[in-house]
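Lecture 7 notes: from sequence to structure.
We start with the chain below.
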Amino acid sequence: MQSPKIFFRSTFLAILGLTVCADAQVLLKNSWQLGRLAEPLSGLRSNSVSDIVIHRGDVWLGTGKGLARSRDGGKTWETYTPANGLPRGGISALAVTDTIIWVAAAFDSLTRDAGVLTTGGGLSYSLDDGATWTHVPQFGPTPVQNVTYDIALRGNEVWATNFGGGLQRSQDRGQTWEVVPPDTFFFDPLGNLNHRAFSVINADGVLWHGTAGGINKSLDGGITWTNFSHTNQPQPVSGNFVVAIGQQKWQGREYIWAATVNAEDPNETRAVSVTEDGGFTWRITLAGEFAHNFAFDDSIAYVVTDNGLYKSIDFGRTWAKFPPVVDGTKGERFLTSEYFAVGVTNGRLFTGGPDGIAYTDNNGSTWSILRGSVKAGESGAPRTYAYPNPFSPFRHNQFRDDGNVRFQYNTTRATKVTIKVYDFAMELVAEVANQKERSVAGQYAEVWNGRNRRGEVVANGVYFYRLDLEGEGTFWGKVMVLD
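Predicted C-alpha cells for the same chain:
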C-alpha cells in the first residue's frame, strides 16, 4: 500500500482533474465498532512514517500499518491496528489532545474503469487514551478519492479535510458530518479549488484551513472566513496548494507556517510561507522546497521536505540543513531524501519518512534509526529475506538517484558476511558485500541498489542472492525486481 504522503503526491498531480468513482473494490458500511478487540501489537510494524504527534511526552506515529505509540521517548513501541478498532489502511491523519485521539486511514482500491484509486478507510477515535476505539465510516458520497488528510479538534468539534468531501465538521463524535466550505459559494470540489481540502489546525480557537485555493482563516468557528491566496495580497503566499499548516508561539508572538505549493497560476512556486500578523502579510522562505510538515521547540522551527530536514533559529529567515541521517552504531542510513514527519520533545528530535523513524539527542551529530522490519531468524522468520519485495529501483527507498532493497539477516556470533546476487540463469549480477565484518551477533541488513556490475539498472525479473556467513553457513533468498 502507498504511504499517505504518496497519496498527497498523487493528489497534487490531479488537483486540476478530480475523478470520483463509486465502483470501488471495497464498499464501506455505515456501521460502528466499539471496544477493545485486542491488545496493541508490540513494536513498530511499518517502515513508512507519515506523521508524528508528540503530546504529554508520548510519541505517536502515523504509519503504513497502523498507529504506533511510545511512552518512553522511542525506546519501546506498541502499534494499534484494525484489530483494535482502527480504520483499514495506512494512517493519513492524526490528532491527539489529552486522552482523546483521532485517526484516519487510507488504502488503494481497484476500480473497474479507473484502475487503482486511493480510498478513505474511515476514522476512529479513542476517549480513554487508546484503551478502546470507536470506528467511524468514511463520510461523503463515496470513499474513493475521498481520503482524510488532516484532523483538528476544537472543543467538542472534529474538523476533517477530505480531497473529495471538502472541509467537514462533526459535533457528535462522527455520527453526522456537515460540509463547511470556507467561503459563501455552493460546495463544488470539481470546479472550486478552494473546496479541495488538505490541511487544518486549531490555533487557540482560530481555524486555519489549507486548500488547493489558498489559506482560509476563521475566528468564529467556521461561520465566516478570510481567504489568503497568491493573487489577493501585496505580500502573498508562494502558492495556493497548502499541504500543511503549523502554529509557533514564542514570547507572546504567534507565527503561522504553511507549506505552500504551486497550483494553477504559473507564477506560483513551492516554498514555505510564514505570517507574523495573522495572515495580512506573508514572508516566503525555503523557496523551491516541497514541505510536508513542521515542528517547533520554543523559538526553533523544523521543516521536513522532499530534500531533507531543515532547522531555523530565526523564524525562517535563515536555515541549516541536516546532513543525511546515519545511524553510526548500526552502520545504516536513511535510504531516502524525502522526510514526511518531524517532532521534538525534551530535546529529542524525531523525523520519519518512507524508510523508518530516527531520533537525535545532539542536534543531528548522531542518530538512532528505528524500523519495523520482521527480525530475521526469530519467531519462525527465515535467516534472511529481502524488503521491499517486489522491489522497484525507480520507486523504493530513493536516495541519490538510486532505489534500494535491503537484504535482512541475523548472525549468532562474530562473522564475516558476503552477499552475491544472481539472475535466473545463476549468472553473477552484483556483489553487495565481500567479507564484511560483523563483530557481534545481531540483526543486520545490506543494501543493493538494483544495478549490475556495469552500473546498469537490472531488468525486471526474479533474482536470487546468496548470503555467506563465515562459520555459520550459506543461506539463499529471492527478490523480484518489478517496476
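Points to note: The two ends are 15 Å apart (CA to CA). Residues 384-481 form a domain with the Immunoglobulin-like fold (CATH 2.60.40.4070).
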